[in-house]
From TrEMBL:
Natural source organism: Bernardetia litoralis (strain ATCC 23117 / DSM 6794 / NBRC 15988 / NCIMB 1366 / Fx l1 / Sio-4)
Cellular compartment(s): Membrane
Domain of life, source organism: Bacteria
Membrane topology: Multi-pass membrane protein
Entry annotated with the keyword Transmembrane helix: yes
RDD domain mapped to chain residues: 19-148
GO cellular component, one term: membrane
Protein known as: Putative membrane protein/domain protein
Length: 252
């Protein structure tokens, strides 16, 4: 399974799995089925309404042009903007569009992806998109390459939730070291736990200590304490563990 590392706005690197080409195709077919169903229901309802009210056939043509055509044309763009990088099919498959630099995709990013669907999917019958997603390191079709985006599985490979965080160990009779640790958010604590998990899984990876050190530096700065206590890998890990434990004790 291909993976990709994305650095978040908090300078935390999180590893995500890339969905398979098959999963992306299934998401596309789910969206297609929804479009066909929505189109059929709306068309039948409007035909019924036209017959009941005795409206001219021109009204049906106008309805098709103003409602049904835009539904087919703008569905993917509208969904990704409204649902934060997901269409209904993508949500069903647990995948999402993200920026490679960790930023939230902008309207122009979504527009770029949508504009090149014609080339990636429609004009080439999906062959170009399949070739690029399969052949590129980051699983990008042409629209993704130009927009600086890719599609990931929603859950990271190092996903940690708050329940898991609270079950780290027993804190009976534990005395917190840094009482100001409550300045951190739950999301920041989950990020610290994710980084510690990564350090345990990949202790010899080149950037593991750099990531730990950078995280510890940011944490110390937020706690307004000296950074002299953690000059080596073990001290750095111990400091972050302490911050994590203090947070759980003081906020649970």
């Amino acid at each position: 399974m291909k993976t990709i590392s994305i650095r978040t706005s908090q300078n935390v690197t999180i590893e995500y799995e890339l969905p398979s080409t098959f999963q992306r195709i299934i998401a596309w077919f789910i969206d297609l089925a929804i479009l066909i169903l929505a189109n059929s229901v709306l068309a039948l309802l409007f035909v019924w309404l036209v017959s009941i009210l005795g409206l001219p056939d021109l009204v049906q043509t106008v309805f098709n042009f103003l409602v049904l055509v835009p539904l087919w044309f703008f569905y993917s763009l509208f969904c990704e903007i409204i649902f934060n990088g997901q269409s209904i099919g993508k949500r069903a498959m647990g995948i999402r569009v993200v920026k490679l630099n960790g930023d939230i995709p902008s309207l122009s990013d979504y527009f770029m992806r949508w504009a090149f669907r014609m080339v990636d999917i429609m004009f080439s019958f999906g062959s170009l998109a399949t070739l690029l997603v399969t052949g590129t390191e980051k699983g990008q079709r042409l629209g993704d390459i130009l927009a600086g985006t890719t599609v990931i599985k929603v859950k990271s490979t190092q996903h940690v939730n708050m329940k898991e965080l609270l079950n780290i160990r027993s804190f009976k009779n534990y005395e917190p070291t840094y009482e100001q640790v409550t300045v951190f958010s739950e999301e920041e604590m989950l990020s610290i736990k994710t980084i510690l998990n990564r350090a345990s899984r990949f202790p010899k990876q080149k950037n593991t200590y750099q990531l730990l050190q950078k995280t510890a530096t940011l944490a110390a700065k937020k706690l307004d304490i000296s950074q002299e206590k953690f000059t080596g890998p073990q001290q750095t890990k111990q400091f972050l563990h302490t911050v994590l434990q203090d947070y759980i004790v003081l906020t649970r």
